[in-house]
Amino acid sequence: MQRLFWALLFLPLVFSGCATQADVMDLQTEVEKNRAERDEIQNRLKVVESYFKERSTTVQRSQADIVIKLDQVATDLQAAQGKLEENSHLLADFSQRIDDLTFRSKELTGRLDVLDGQIAALEKSVADLEKTAPTIGKGGPGTPDLKSSGTPEARSPQGAASPDQTIVLPGRPTEKDKATGMSPSEAYGLAYNDYLKGNYDLSLLGFQSFLTQFKATSLAPNAQYWIGESYYGKKEYLKSIEAFDKVVSDYPKSDKVPGALLKAGYACIEIGDKTRARTYLKKVVENYPLSNEGKLAKNKLAELK
Q1: Which of 4, 132, 155, 251 allows an S-S link to 221, with CB 3.0 to 4.6 Å?
Q2: Sign (positive/negative) of CA torsion 252, 194, 166, 141?
Q3: Residue 93 domain-assigned?
């Protein structure tokens, strides 16, 4: 009985010792596990640190490259700006030359118009001379025989016209206006010079007066055209269109018709009427495809699309 008592007394102590040793082993296992995890984390941290160091070096190099490239871009921009300024000066000079050429072209056009009028007047004079020539020298009633050597006019140099004199046929009036005393070419040239100088009000008065005094001359279509150009120069585009329309309606066979249609189209563009502008420009392209006006109209139509 006494032995059983002591056995029961020491039994919990034995089991208690076993439990404590097991806990210690578990604790040691846990510690080892934690150490292993710590080492793994440290290794990972080293890898991450190494990666970031490498990336940092790469970024620094990239930044350095970017700075170099930005400097190069800045240099290129400065060079481009210099080129742009140089081109601007060249363009301004080129534009001035174009303006000069345009002025000279208009001046030459005006001179050609005057020459056309003079040629037409000469052709008419020649035609009139040819009509009256058969009556000269035939000895008709009241007509002296210029071929006869017995006439005083034939023998004496006073009977011949000097180079500075103008032979006026009987019944044929001079082509100068009685009020102004100017010939058609003189009146036309005066108005055209006003146009070239930009005196559009004066050129309008001049060309309108020309049409009143010399409407039957060959320069009439040209005068009507330059009335339209004068209004265009004043930016009175509606009146300009009306004047150009009058060229087409009153002088359909004139060589000014293509230009009148073209400028009427331009005037419509200026007032924002693109539909009407296309109508004028298409007429130029369809009716005068090979002319300079036809090419300009074709280009302008392409711009309007």
Answers
A1: 251
A2: positive
A3: no
Q: How does pLDDT run across 83-106, given as a tens digit for each residue?
A: 676 665 466 545 545 654 665 576
Q: Under a CB-based contact definition with an 8 Å cutoff, are residues 296 and 281 in contact?
A: no
Rounded-to-integer distance, Cα 240 and Cα 227, Å:
7
Q: How many CB atoms lie within 10 A of CB 208?
A: 16
Which residue in 168, 218, 157 sits closest to 188, CA to CA? 218
Q: How far is CA 109 from CA 4, 95, 175, 221, in A?
A: 148, 21, 23, 14
10: its two tokens: 């020491």
Residue 162 falls inside a structural domain? no
End-to-end CA distance of the chain: 125
Residues 216 and 266 both lie in one domain? yes
Same domain (yes/no): 186, 305 = yes
**The dihedral of CA 39, 45, 46, 47: what is its sign?**
positive
- Taking only the tens place, the pLDDT of each residue in 129-160 is 656 655 444 444 444 443 333 333 333 333 33
Tokens, residue 177? 């206006």
Q: Tokens at residue 39, please?
A: 């080492």
> Where residue 227 sits, what CATH number does that domain have?
1.25.40.10
What's the structural domain count of the chain?
3
Range(s) of the domain holding residue 261:
177-305
Q: Does residue 140 fall inside a structural domain?
A: yes
The pTM for the full model equals 0.49
Better pLDDT: 78 or 60: 60
Say if 98 falls within a structural domain: no
Q: What is the mean pLDDT of residues 173-180?
A: 49
User: Domain check: are 78 and 33 in the same one?
Assistant: yes
d(CA 165, CA 26) in angstroms, rounded, equals 145
Burial of 276 (0-12, 13-18, 19+ CB in 10 A): middle
| Contact indicator for 222, 113 with CB cutoff of 8 Å | yes
**pLDDT at residue 171, as a whole number:** 34
Q: What is the pLDDT of residue 150?
A: 38
